[in-house]
Specification:
- It is a single chain.
- It is globular, with a radius of gyration of 22 Å.
- The strands form 2 sheets. The protein has a 5-stranded mixed sheet with strand order 1-2-5-4-3. The protein has a two-stranded antiparallel ribbon with strand order 6-7.
- Helix 1 packs across helix 2.
- The chain is α+β, with helices and mostly antiparallel strands.
- It folds into 4 domains: about 55 residues, no CATH class; about 120 residues, Beta Polymerase, domain 2 (2-Layer Sandwich); about 90 residues, no CATH class; about 90 residues, no CATH class.
Length: about 400
């Protein structure tokens, strides 16, 4: 890690522990430092860690960081109001709901604005979908999209987004929990409520890890906030380790969990780190919150390079991008669930859509064919070390 990256991690570590930084390094790359704060959505965390040293940092940097932090504070207050309004309406109407991920995780930070998110994920009961959509209309939320897995709705004025999930177990967790298990089967009603559901702590942690692993595999990396979530959750709750590890073995996430916990300990507890942990730490810092376009092509190829034949892996990756797996096609075109024989026709439909609306997809195919050997070797090591090639 560069000195600036090390200082960024130190600021994040102090911030999530509600502590302050004592000294600013003499040679700090402010441009890189600000980009790290912004790309990892850590502006508020870093701002609060540096509060006592305002006079010692570059004025222009402080002005930009302060503006970003204050903006997130205001947005967090508004989103909190919007979320409470919608969830209260669910409770009053007798509609089952289960707030997911960020709703619970942000309460583990010293202040909720440290983990501001513009959207709120909520599991709904598919058997009540008609009633839920009626409530959405009554509350004045606009609809962005309806698909098989969720309805995405939002407040037009405040831009608070709600992802109303019909199932939470997708990607690496779908086979583990079962396709028919939509989520409520592994949850119970929270005390003091009638329709507010929540998972037990081990299952919640498994879903959190599954979410991070899925994004890591899809986007060639995740940002440091995934690590702060993991770290603060493990610090807050005592989990049944034997049960947790046994369940993670079943869904293929045991190695991912072990390695991500090692990196979080390296970052936030100054634990010793082996070479792979250091490489993974560096990779995460070079990523962003949910995507890393530079490394994505190499990651896509690496997923198919188990046999160490890089040319074959590139061809396989390009072919799978052109002709998506049947399950993905069924997600994009639900009619295929009942008429899979239409698959060839819908491959043509999809590519007509891509050609006219997604020129970047064509660029990605070319990038896969031109992946550098060093980048491919790096992503093979990272994906293999996390054991996520099955995702």
């Amino acid at each position: 890690m560069t000195n600036t990256e090390k200082f960024f991690v130190e600021c994040v570590k102090r911030g999530i522990k509600d502590e302050k930084i004592d000294v600013i390094p003499n040679e700090l790359d402010y441009k890189q430092f600000y980009n790290l704060c912004a790309s990892h959505s850590m502006s508020v965390v870093v701002f609060k860690a540096l509060e006592n040293l305002k006079s010692q940092v570059l004025p222009e940097f402080w002005k930009r960081l302060q503006f970003s932090a204050q903006r997130h504070v205001m947005l967090d207050v508004q989103s909190e109001y919007d979320i409470n309004t919608v969830l209260t309406a669910f409770e009053e109407r007798g509609l089952k709901y289960m707030p997911l991920k960020g709703y619970h995780l942000k309460k583990l930070y010293p202040s909720t604005d440290m983990r501001y998110a513009s959207d709120c994920d909520v599991l709904i009961d598919v058997n009540q979908l008609k009633e839920v959509r009626a409530l959405v209309d009554e509350l004045g939320l606009a609809t962005k999209r309806h698909d098989e897995h969720h309805d995405i709705v939002y407040y037009s004025e405040t831009k608070t987004i709600f992802e109303l999930h019909k199932t939470i177990f997708v990607g690496p967790l779908e086979k583990y929990f079962g396709v028919e298990n939509k989520g409520f089967e592994r949850a119970s009603v929270r005390g003091g409520y009638e329709y507010f559901y929540e998972m037990d702590r081990e299952i919640f942690y498994i879903s959190l890890l599954g979410h991070s692993a899925y994004h890591f595999a899809e986007s060639a990396g995740v940002g440091i906030r995934h690590l702060t979530d993991i770290y603060l959750y493990r610090k807050a709750y005592e989990l049944n380790e034997e049960y947790l590890n046994a369940e993670l073995e079943k869904c293929g996430l045991r190695k991912f969990k072990d390695e991500f916990e090692k990196v979080s300990a390296y970052f936030f507890e100054d634990a010793e780190a082996d070479e792979f942990t250091k490489k993974l730490a560096k990779h995460i810092l070079e990523s962003s919150l949910l995507a890393n376009e530079e490394k994505k092509s190499a990651s896509d190829v690496a997923a198919h390079a188990i046999e160490n034949d890089d040319k074959k892996a590139k061809k396989k990756s390009v072919w799978r991008k052109i002709f998506l797996p049947t399950e993905q096609m069924k997600f994009l075109f639900p009619v295929l669930k009942k008429a899979v024989w239409l698959l060839p026709f819908f491959h043509i439909v999809r590519w007509m859509q891509v050609l006219f609306t997604r020129p970047k997809a064509i660029k990605q195919l070319k990038q896969m064919q031109n992946v550098e050997s060093a980048d491919l070797a790096h992503m093979k090591e990272i994906r293999g070390g996390l054991d996520i090639n099955h995702l």
